[in-house]
Amino acid sequence: MDVSDVTALLSPEGRALLDSLPPYRDDDALALTGRLRRKGHAPELVAVVLTQARLRQRARAKFGDLAETLFFTQAGYEQSSRWSVAQTHAAQFARAGARHIVDIGCGIGADSLAFCNAGLRVTAIESDPATALIARANLPAATVLCEDGLTAMVPDADAVWLDPARRTTTGRRIKDPQSWSPTYGQALDIAASYRYSGIKVAPGIPHSILPAQAHVVWTSEGRELLEAVVWQGTGTPGRYAVVDGVAFDSGATSADQPVTPSEPSPLRALLLEPDPALIRSGGIAQLCRMYGVAPVSDGIAYLTGDNSLPGCDSFAIREVLRNDVKDIKRALDAHGIGALEIKKRGTDTDIELLRKRIGKRTGRPGVLILTPVLGRHRAILAERTPGDGSS
User: Fold this and answer.
1) Which residues have C-beta within 8 Å of that of residue 185, sequence separation ≥ 6?
2) Most CB within 10 Å of its CB: which of 40, 199, 245, 258?
3) What does DSSP assign to residue 140?
């Protein structure tokens, strides 16, 4: 959307039209467009309003009912934090004692809204004029500036939040942190000017480029890895995971002081799959040390043990096979398994091709896990356990 689109959307007529629409459904969009045009609404306004209705409908996955009160751009929606996660960002700053926060590259203002709700004074900065208009509409309690966050000066602020753009204008992910906007290096330089700071980064960021004294948190919900944040001034230095709201200390303080990896072990009763936030935070060795479990093979993020663990999915091992289709089909028949979930690590097996070769089957559900075990490729036939540590 450009400035003229946003201006039309935020006009009294645009807001009224948006509020009058039924819940958005893709199947109804064409017919609804025709009805609105026949009522005399300008085609351009109808297009903008229906786009907004579609974005609000999709944004419910991140914001719940709050989505119906907010305005979005496509890019702003895609990069915005989930509302539950934005609230944890705000709580982190509030607990540390922050009073006035600058949100550089605020986008649609999701994090800034959470900061406002936490009682912080907020200055939100967005360089894109259309997005800045959206942010102003979403942030009546904040000061929203449309300017370059790299040069903006907010003298009395004691905290800063940065969420660098990590996609191109066409939506492609930018993997190199020094190609983000602002770059990772620029974000670190800006953060150094404030007492409290948080930089949202890609979850796959190399540990080697994280500041040694930073409090770095990888966050997941429902086994989906959402983000990593480099915090400074707000917590104890180290590497942490937050899994469905529960915090785990990886035991590593920096890339220079990692936890010593655990030795692989023969398979026990269960195969355990740690949450991706635990894996990214470097917490595998800590799990092994704390709970007496072990990796199934060097460099593989599957563990084995006799009991379920918090933050891990667990699978009861039924049979260990060669990674061979004939052996797998025989075992599926023997165990009466039909609906099959297939997982893999450390192997280049094409899962979809394997599924086709196995064919459709009837029977109870099961899980096939393809992984090296003590360095040898294996297919593990298993079942999910009821108390799998996922809560």
Assistant:
1) 177, 178
2) 199
3) T
106, exposed or middle or buried, with CB in 10 Å at 0-12, 13-18, 19+?
Answer: buried
Q: Within a 13 Å sphere around the CA of 32, how many CA atoms are in the beta-carbon half?
A: 19
Distance between CA atoms of 80 and 73, rounded to whole angstroms? 10
pTM of this prediction? 0.89
Backbone φ and ψ for 123, nearest 5 degrees, come out as -115, 110
Can you tell me the distance from the alpha carbon of 255 to that of 329, in angstroms, rounded to the nearest whole number? 44
Q: How many residues does the chain have?
A: 391
Q: What would the two tokens of residue 302 be?
A: 């599957």
Residue 68 to residue 81: CA distance in whole angstroms: 16
Q: Do 235 and 96 form a contact (C-beta atoms < 8 A)?
A: yes
CB of 389 closer than 8 Å to CB of 311? yes
Three-state SS at 229 = strand
Per-residue pLDDT tens listing for the chain (391 residues): 899 999 999 999 999 999 999 999 998 999 999 999 999 999 999 999 999 999 999 999 999 999 999 999 998 898 899 999 999 999 999 999 999 999 999 999 999 999 999 999 999 999 999 999 999 999 999 999 999 988 888 989 999 999 998 888 777 889 999 999 999 999 999 999 999 999 999 999 999 999 999 999 999 999 999 999 999 999 999 999 999 999 999 887 665 555 667 899 999 999 999 999 999 999 999 999 999 999 999 999 999 999 999 999 999 999 999 999 999 999 999 999 999 999 999 999 999 999 999 999 999 999 999 999 999 999 999 999 986 554 4
Domain ranges for the chain? 3-60, 77-202, 270-384
d(CA 383, CA 57): 36
How far apart are alpha carbons 34 and 338 in whole angstroms? 48
Please state, in angstroms and rounded to a whole number, the distance separating the CA atoms of residues 161 and 231. 9
Q: Is 371 left (phi over 0), alpha (psi -120 to 50) or beta?
A: beta
CATH superfamily of the domain spanning 77-202: Vaccinia Virus protein VP39 (3.40.50.150)
b/e map 130-165, b = 16+ CB within 10 Å = bbbbbbbbbbeebebbbeebbeeebeebbbbbbbbb
| Residue found by looking up tokens 């960002």 in the block | 89
